[in-house]
Amino acid sequence: MNSYLRRIITTGVISLTCTGLILPLMANAGNPEDYRFSREPGTTKDGYPLPLTGKPITKNPVIAKPGVDVKKYPEHYVPGKETLAENEMRITACGSWGPAPMRIGQGASCLLVELGNGDVHPAKLDKVFITHFHLDHVGGIFPLFDAMGWARNTPLHLWGSSGYTPELGITAFSQNITQAAEWHIQNKQAILPSGGMTIVPHEIDISKFSLEHPRELAYDENGVKIWAFPVIHALAGSMGYRLEWNGLTFVYTADSQPGTFEAEQGKGADVFIHEIFPSAEEFAFYNHMPIQAAEGVMEEHTTPAELGRVYSIAKPRLGVGSHFTLDENLIDPLFQRWGTTYTDPVLLLQDLTTINVTSDYIVVRQTKADPLAWPAPPPPMPEGVDLSIGEPSKAQRPDWLTETRLPQEP
Ligand SMILES: [Zn+2]
Ligand SMILES: [Zn+2]
Question: Which residues lie closer than 8 Å to 33 by C-beta, 6 or more apart?
Fold first, then answer.
């Protein structure tokens, strides 16, 4: 999977690192089996691996207003093979869970949001909105910081909390990331333009939040507004985001306990993505964790029935649960509990689930990404970008070591 997909994103002109009664249609949904994934190490008819649970992740792969024509999408979304329409938003889960390194089927939490302005390109993925600094939400920042240093050549922009104290905020985080990459930067600066190896932090002043001032406008460019609002999770500074563009609204709360405040901030969303967790007993059992520890974890999170209550207030066109430990034994109980408090369309996110959103319809598919993809050709470099090469670092390895190199082939 391309590393750039591993956080909340907006690209250049914009792309971001989610009401009413909707008639669910199966038109254009293809075979419902498309939404089932065998956990056995099998492959599709085209030879793609099928890593997940074999359980459906939604009963509503197509949500359309009555009487509208739903675009005929290919069965799977293949990155680079589909242009976005001008009125269309595309949300892709680059990662749907957490940091467990043994779970290759679920990367750390990250969403890629692309908006249909015709200007989306991986080299322009330079805008990242960070919900909070838990490592399952920011630990993948290095590949994004580096991987396109040669193509982006302009700074990476990070939005996030100003911090309860400065060391807990986005400016310190950005400086620390840059500092941790110092060895890498000193080496590469003499080989490649290093303008892309800088981070510009954008602080969202969390001290301004209150019941009277529930959200801050974090971003306002090219018709895109992104609002930040606080959520109930861990330390001060955990936030959700509300993106409004072209009549479409996407809300993402990442990790959060259920609350009326976030539900109000999510009102009117076309797509609302919120975390969802199994029960403390299930979490303890599968993670070999003492029940007391699992109960402590769950205090920071949201059960399916609780998420149903949040969505009953917010009333999104599509309510999405993410950050769930996928397992074939957990999915049926999850949907059953979710259904006790909410019966409108829902989706359980897994890695590389893609949601196409227009005012008329929402379509959910799985992405087929080439695991060995090459980068797309870079777009024209903007005017004024410094492509000069820097000075070599003084930290050169000793000559005696270099001199042991085998003679180069003629
Ligand atoms: Zn968290
Ligand atoms: Zn988390």
Answer: none
Task: Please tell me the predicted confidence (pLDDT) of residue 46.
Answer: 58
Ligand 1 centroid distance, CA of 378 (Å)? 34
3-state SS assignment for residue 311? helix
- 379, exposed or middle or buried, with CB in 10 Å at 0-12, 13-18, 19+? middle
- Kindly give the distance from the C-alpha atom of residue 135 to the centroid of ligand 1, in angstroms, as a whole number: 8
CA distances from 324 to 97, 106, 228, 364 (A): 6, 9, 23, 18
pLDDT (0 to 100) of residue 52: 65
* N- to C-terminal Cα separation, the chain: 37
**Whole-number Å distance between alpha carbons of 290 and 28:** 46
* 72 Cβ neighbours under 8 A, 6+ residues apart: 28
Q: Considering the chain, what percentage of its residues have pLDDT values greater than 70?
A: 84
Residue 295: exposure state from Cβ atoms within 10 A (0-12, 13-18, ≥19) = middle
Q: Give 137 Cα–ligand 2 centroid separation in angstroms.
A: 6
* pLDDT of res. 43: 53
CA of residue 27 relative to chain centroid, distance? 27
Q: What is the pLDDT of residue 100?
A: 66
Instruction: Provide the phi-psi class of 202: left if phi over 0, else alpha when psi is between -120 and 50, else beta.
Output: beta
Amino acid at 153: N
